[in-house]
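Obj.: predict assembly geometry.
Materials: sequence records (below).
Method: joint structure prediction, all chains together.
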Amino acid sequence: TQLLEQSPQFLSIQEGENLTVYCNSSSVFSSLQWYRQEPGEGPVLLVTVVTGGEVKKLKRLTFQFGDARKDSSLHITAAQPGDTGLYLCAFNDYKLSFGAGTTVTVRA
Amino acid sequence: DAGITQSPRHKVTETGTPVTLRCHQTENHRYMYWYRQDPGHGLRLIHYSYGVKDTDKGEVSDGYSVSRSKTEDFLLTLESATSSQTSVYFCAISESSGWGARGTEAFFGQGTRLTVV
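Observations (raw structure tokens):
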């Protein structure tokens, strides 16, 4: 059983569309991390959210941490083929644990 | 880029043979982790280390052992490889860990693709 539940598992959209990926749990976290993994590579950190209700922006990517610090979302505006990858949320509480991930495919 | 090197990058081995994967870091980070990645399962923690000679089990530790005799090296050993251990293995490092800690972000190696036939 994974502590972090990610949804959806797969997402395929057309270039220019928007998408949202969710990371949910029944546990409270001091912080959550988001990573992106491209085929054949290791995951790369995108952002860490720390404060409940926090919103962080990274170009066209917007990350939000829930007020209760139990969930987080990643929104991509006007997706591009370069956004294709596996998006993973994680928390590091002595054991760095990941959700199962959302595979995003952006078609040109 | 964080200095993390995994070796080998690819390996094919026979069932029942021992296999050791190496993770080497040049960042002097305290925490090191071994994961396996399989379709539909994301990254699952095998073992992790919080210092030299200090290790603990993750969620899928059966059939695996680890050792950390130096800060920079973390070894993962499959004592007797089985086909179910065919996977991509990733090593990661972080400066710190724990509730509220700073510097908990992880940096990953390039992965080792292991095939057990």
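Conclusions so far: Chain A has a mean pLDDT of 94.
To do: check interface contacts against the pulldown list.
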